[in-house]
Amino acid sequence: MLTILALASVILLGIVPQQSEAIVIYTGWERHALVGSDIRLSCSFFSWRWTSDDVTFSWSYRADGARDSIFVFHYTGGSPYVDNKGPFRDRLEFVGNPGRRDGSILLKNLDYGDNGTFTCDAKNPPDIVGRASSVRLLVFEKVPIQAGVITGAIIGVVLGLLVLVVVIYYLMRFLVARRVFNLSVSKHGKKGKGKEGSQQRQVPVLSIGDPSKLKAAASEKKKQESRKDKK
């Protein structure tokens, strides 16, 4: 009895179709391009399943100011299909690789009228539940400076100013320390000279004596010498 129940459960599980899981689709957020240039709009997806032979990609386009979207590209059954009546009928090329979950397209010879939002949707059966992803295309005569470049420039200027302030601070400290050292050396030098002068002034001067007394002593000495000679 248990064997029969086990076999029945296996058969039922084999008959029940596999449940689909969510698929995550990725595109860029915003792309800038020049008039007359070409641009690649990337689209890829993540799925827990192996890439199916029935994988599909669809691209739609909504121009700026328009309310409705139009389909411009579809890939299914291993073949790409480009809308032959839309604004990109002669300017859209499929450059993706479905086997690697890449559904990218290439837009050629861009014009101002191509500004708008492109939406990519992908299916990887049985994973067919997922939210489409959109990228906005902006066509300019000259590509504007992006916010990241401006932010990087501001950060660079701020860091440069900080480095300059630090250098000035240490330079001022060095100059002040050098000034204090020179003042201390000059004070010690003046004190040393003052001591030498006082020592020189304190040297005793020998007294020569009274000249008249010296003469009297000399005459007395001569008298004594003459007396000795007479004797």
Automatic annotation (TrEMBL):
<dbReference type="Pfam" id="PF07686">
    <property type="entry name" value="V-set"/>
</dbReference>
<feature type="region of interest" description="Disordered">
    <location>
        <begin position="187"/>
        <end position="231"/>
    </location>
</feature>
<dbReference type="InterPro" id="IPR007110">
    <property type="entry name" value="Ig-like_dom"/>
</dbReference>
<dbReference type="InterPro" id="IPR000920">
    <property type="entry name" value="Myelin_P0-rel"/>
</dbReference>
<keyword id="KW-1015">Disulfide bond</keyword>
<keyword id="KW-0393">Immunoglobulin domain</keyword>
<dbReference type="GO" id="GO:0042552">
    <property type="term" value="P:myelination"/>
</dbReference>
<keyword id="KW-1133">Transmembrane helix</keyword>
<keyword id="KW-0472">Membrane</keyword>
<keyword id="KW-0325">Glycoprotein</keyword>
<feature type="transmembrane region" description="Helical">
    <location>
        <begin position="145"/>
        <end position="171"/>
    </location>
</feature>
<feature type="signal peptide">
    <location>
        <begin position="1"/>
        <end position="22"/>
    </location>
</feature>
<keyword id="KW-0812">Transmembrane</keyword>
<feature type="domain" description="Ig-like">
    <location>
        <begin position="17"/>
        <end position="138"/>
    </location>
</feature>
<comment type="similarity">
    <text>Belongs to the myelin P0 protein family.</text>
</comment>
<dbReference type="InterPro" id="IPR003599">
    <property type="entry name" value="Ig_sub"/>
</dbReference>
<keyword id="KW-0732">Signal</keyword>
<dbReference type="GO" id="GO:0005886">
    <property type="term" value="C:plasma membrane"/>
</dbReference>
<dbReference type="InterPro" id="IPR036179">
    <property type="entry name" value="Ig-like_dom_sf"/>
</dbReference>
<dbReference type="InterPro" id="IPR013106">
    <property type="entry name" value="Ig_V-set"/>
</dbReference>
<dbReference type="InterPro" id="IPR013783">
    <property type="entry name" value="Ig-like_fold"/>
</dbReference>
<protein>
    <submittedName>
        <fullName>Myelin protein zero</fullName>
    </submittedName>
</protein>
<feature type="compositionally biased region" description="Basic and acidic residues">
    <location>
        <begin position="218"/>
        <end position="231"/>
    </location>
</feature>
